[in-house]
Protein 1
Amino acid sequence: MGPSVVAVSADSQHRFSKPNVGSIRVIAGLGIEGDSHAGATIQHLGPMRRDPTQPNLRQVHLIHSELHDELRELGYDVKPGGLGENITTRGIDLLGLPQGTRLRIGPEAILEVTGLRSPCHQINTFTPGLLKEVIQTDADGTVVRKTGIMSVVHSSGLIHPDDPIVVELPDGPHVPLEVV
């Protein structure tokens, strides 16, 4: 089986975790219908307070379920949607994708990868000690952020658990993801 969706999650309220739902509708240029982070301009509370006119490069948050597996092995009980992600995937190295990668999900939806998510201190409120597990430093001193990627909606459509995901890499030199 190839890359696929494990779960989809959305919430109309600004809360850390998002409940799983049966499907989400993504809308081009806006995000997930009914989700608190949908909008053409930034909807995340901290950045919104600084400059509400910024473009919303964080319309849809994706996390790989392999991170949940890793955290469970360390004794943390993390489930899909628990870290605030909208789409939990399996079988894709999300963190290794270059900027501009397109993810075709199901028959219609296309997301475009914009960058890495940088977890905030709220993650330790969700589960004490978790921040140190999801932000680490590798052997050469590079900070590694494991909490998934952010994207914008390129083409509208419905996304369900078990939908296949097709990865389309951008042309030209690939630009590594940075925090958005």
Note: The helical segments are 45-50, 65-73, 122-126, 131-134.
Protein 2
Amino acid sequence: MLAFPSGARKDEHGANTESAVFQFMSAHRCVRATGVAEWITMPARAEGREPAQFQAHVQAALERARSRGIAHPIVIGALPFDLRQPVSLAIPQTVEFFKRQDQPAVAQSTQTNLPQATYARSVPEEIRFRQGVQQAIANFHFSDIRKVVLSRLLEVGLAENIDPAQLFARLLAQNPVGYQFRMRTANGAELIGASPELLLRKHAGRIYSNPLAGSARRQATPALDQQVSQDLLHSDKDLYEHSLVIEDLQRVMQTLCSELTVPATPSLISTASMWHLSTAIEGIPADPAMSVLELACQLHPTPALCGYPTQLARKLISLVEPFERGLFGGMVGWCDAEGEGEWAVSIRCGLVQEKQVQLFAGAGIVAASCPESEWAETQAKLQTMLNALGIDIQPAEKHSAAQQQTQQQTQQQQPQAADEVLV
């Protein structure tokens, strides 16, 4: 935890955070905060430490903010996919709440061209991602794993430094529904995205969650788009994937709630680029004193972001994915001193810093998954951020024929690592 009781406040790289901006947009309530009174980086979970210690740490930071004259302090920011890693939360100096309809017109700069992309690189590349899907499916036959979420990063280099405010304005204009966020992180980068998925909201003594699992890409014509949505609604593969998420969330939430309402069948929701199977869950916490952040940490990561069963799926992810997710696939949002607030899952997002942008997308893998289709799904999900950046990734990701041939020859010559199976 980094605290700055007086003088100019800095992030861990020494950058001034007096002007740091945090924004979280939702149909329920929007937040815009500026400045950093205190950073919180303590992991939400750690070996040998009770989860309650993290919650007490957050509450103490909120109380310190109140003692410094911040009348209604909140904690805002992002938690990682792995809650054993440091969080990136801030106690802002100023906070403004408003309704989405009262949001000022999107910045006039939304039509301004953003910096050109100089390169784009997928980690893993397509062939390795598809191999990872095959490896995951093989594990389903020899273990208790029934679903795992495999993801990829797309690293994009830009010709000039990007303006995060301009990118966020474009993202808002293109994605007017869902949960849009712009969060300064403790290391100076900005996490920007438009997530369709609510992990948890707490308001007036009730909690709400809206998990998504099962997806299909939107189509250009109304007739095709309608057909795709109906195919998704009746897809055995996607309904099975969705049921794993809902059943596990219901199991966990029943231990936290005195009342819980879970619809018997999913419905459809859409974004600008995707259709999703959706189930809206509502409940009353058994312990009214538990904050939305504390409750959200109990739910995260759900099978929608990790897999089922959670611990085995997490192990498989660590074997298959060639990178650490960090804040990707985590949760982003806010919580006030009274325990109310809202947290969305950190998907359809990117980390932005100067001339570098790192984008994230994942796909839920079950026994009936097709490696080519899962790769295509990640491509479709990346479009949310690529469209906001104004980047056509197809030419950016292409290499010359000679480069592709050389790469393929190199891969053929290298011995393949043996697949590991979790039993």
Note: The chain has one domain: 21-102+118-395.
